[in-house]
Amino acid sequence: MKQLLAILLLLAVLPGAVLAQELPESAQEILDSPPITAEEFQAASAPQLLGQLLDIVKEQFEQPFRLLASVSVTVLIAAAALSLLPGSDWRAPLETVCLLGISTAALQPMMPLLEQLTGRIQECQTYLLSFVPVFSGVMISCGQPTQAAVYSGMFLTMAAFCAQMISTVALPLVRAFLALTVAGGLCDLGGLSDGCAILHRIVKWILGFLSILFGGVLGLQSVLAQNTDTLAMKTGQFLLSSGIPVIGSLASDAMGSVLSGLRVLKGTLGFAAIAVLTVTFLPLLIRCFCFYLAYLLSAALAKSFGLNRAGRVLEGMGQATGLCISFLVFFFMLTVLSTALMILLGGGG
Amino acid sequence: MEIFRIAAFVLVAAVLIGLIREHLPSYGILCLLGCSVVLLLYLLRLAAPLIEQLSAYADYGEQTGFSTVIKAAGIALASQTTQDLCRDAGLSSLAGKVEFAGRCLILMCALPLFQIAAESLAAFLQ
Amino acid sequence: MDIDLVFKIAAIGIIVAVLNQLLIRSGREDQAMMTTLAGLIVVLSMLVQQISDLFVNIKSLFNL
Fold first, then answer.
1. Which of A70, A240, A267, A324 gives a 20 to 30 Å CA spacing to B75?
2. Cα A172 to the chain's mean position, in Å?
3. Other C-beta atoms within 10 Å of A41: how many?
4. Between chains, do A182 and B62 touch, taking CB under 8 Å as contact?
């Protein structure tokens, strides 16, 4: 029954006819489409790669620090100017002006960040969706589907569904949340901040729902065996669950599967695949994380100086960045696991 | 110390104003006006280095919004002084008008910032 | 600090108050009123310069 359902699902999504032998090559070709090709990476030596990676990381650090510095300077100056002033009647218009200055400075880096995020997520979505015709072709040509094949089918469908959900529903909601936070901080209406809280909760609910699906499907698997619990694993799990907002616990639970998926990739496609994945995800992830920290720190600074509205707006922006981080990590896990499953399927038959 | 000079000045002025006010109330207002003006001039000379330093920091950090904050502070200061004088003269309606004028002017000063913020929000919501 | 200004204003005020009382007691109320007005104008002319100084200072300091 389950097998029939899986076959029907896949046939309904996209009927394609690709032969089973082409599978590893098509996967390789798709992996080649991101920015740096696999050959270039294989040509470069390991220390050179590491140096390049460090450079990328360092240049990602620069912008968030500048943001943090400029927002802190504005907050300090605004607090000094406010304290110079006579009377408590004048705090409100002056705080509005300060808030305007701070939010224009803080919003500026968010736009390019969100656009890069959208672009990256759409690339991943195209990549994931392109697996489906390949898979359905495999199913058609195989004839007798195994348990692993059925599981892979369910996983791919769920991955495509999750990707669609996030890029069409959650991302616009995050943008609306950002816009409402800034507007609410500016005019200080109570209703707007409630609206922001509701939007935030909706996005969190969507992510939670998707992660339950993910966890549920992951639990059925027998293809990617779990690793043994070492100290490094435990540390990594702790860091993931406390560091990444919303889906932290899911990330730490799935870490074992993701690691074995990475091992599969390394074994079949070589170190190049891992390098390509790293280049695709890591700089953006580090940048988002630095911005997250920068926003939260400046919110704390603003609140400690008595600029409560500015603190709340900055906190809202930090929360939006946190949501972006969860999207990225989610997509990373989806990509790694889908690729690994496809390779195993093609190799194992 | 500056604070003692200021305190002494204000105490002496308060006594004098109280003295004159019972005989000729209009002179009380004039004396109060003179006292406030002299005091504010002195305080502005004291606060000038501080404000210049803050402006220097703002230029160093490349802030556009900060000059607006300083202007708003100046408008608030002038407005608050006039308001207090009007209230002491018993004209609280005039004080209310001056406060209204001050708030409007502050918001008008901040108008370019509002426009920038509205544009970036509109770009977000696309 | 121009504390002399405040003393001058206070002194003029006291003198005008005394003259006022004298003239009212001796029955010349209109002259009393004119003395008051004259004193007021003198004090205002002393203050106007200071007020304009103050506003110019605020303007330059706060870049208005």
1. A70
2. 15
3. 19
4. no
ipTM for the assembly? 0.80
Mean of the pLDDT values across residues A244-271? 68
CB A335, CB A124: distance < 8 Å: yes
Question: Of A119 and A137, which is predicted with more confidence?
Answer: A119
State the CB neighbour count (10 A cutoff) for residue A185. Answer: 28
On the question of pLDDT at B62 being above 70, the answer is no
Residue range A126-146, pLDDT digits in tens: 777 777 677 667 666 666 556
Please provide the size of chain A in residues: 349
Q: Can you tell me the distance from the alpha carbon of B115 to that of B108, in angstroms, rounded to the nearest whole number?
A: 11
Burial of A201 (0-12, 13-18, 19+ CB in 10 A): exposed
- The pLDDT of residue A12: 42
Distance to chain B for C53, nearest Cα, Å: 8
Q: Averaged over A210-226, what is the pLDDT?
A: 65
Rounded-to-10 torsion of CA A228, A230, A233, A239: 140
Count how many Cα atoms sit within 13 Å of the Cα of residue A144 in the half-sphere of its side chain: 0
Tokens of residue A157, six digits? 């469908």
- Residue from B121, B125, B126 to probe the interface with A (highest A Cβ count within 10 Å): B121
Residue of B23, B27, B39 to mutate, testing the C interface (most C Cβ within 10 Å of its Cβ): B27
> What's the pLDDT band for A36 if we cut at 50, 70, 90?
very low
Domain ranges within chain B, ordered by starting residue: 1-63, 64-126
pTM of structure: 0.73
Residues of A in contact with B123 (CB under 8 A): 111
Task: For residue C9, list chain B residues with Cβ-Cβ distance below 8 A.
Answer: 27, 30-31, 34
N-terminal to C-terminal alpha carbon distance within chain B: 59
Whole-number Å distance between alpha carbons of C35 and C38:
5
Q: Tens digit of pLDDT for each residue in A175-212?
A: 888 888 888 777 777 677 788 888 888 888 887 777 77
Query: In this complex, how many residue pairs, one in chain A and one in chain B, have their CB atoms less than 8 Å apart?
Result: 114
Q: Which residues of B touch A108 (CB under 8 A)?
A: 120
The rounded Cα A67 to chain-centroid distance in angstroms is 22
Q: Chain B residue closest to A100 (CA)?
A: B113
Verify whether the Cβ–Cβ distance A94 to B72 is below 8 Å.
yes
Task: State CA A16 to chain mean position distance.
Answer: 29
Query: What sections of A220-270 are H helices per DSSP?
Result: 231-243, 248-269
Residues of chain C positioned with their CB less than 8 A from the CB of B24: 13, 16-17, 20, 36
Contact A103, B121 (CB under 8 A): no
The torsion angles phi and psi of A304, rounded to 5 degrees, stand at -70, -25
Measured CA distances, B118 to A32, A190, B88, B107, C27 (Å)? 41, 20, 41, 15, 70
Q: Do B27 and C43 touch (CB under 8 A)?
A: yes
Whole-Å CA distances, B71 to B16, B68, C63 = 34, 5, 6
**What is the rounded CA–CA span in Å between residue A315 and residue A302?**
10
| Cβ count within 10 A of residue B85 | 18
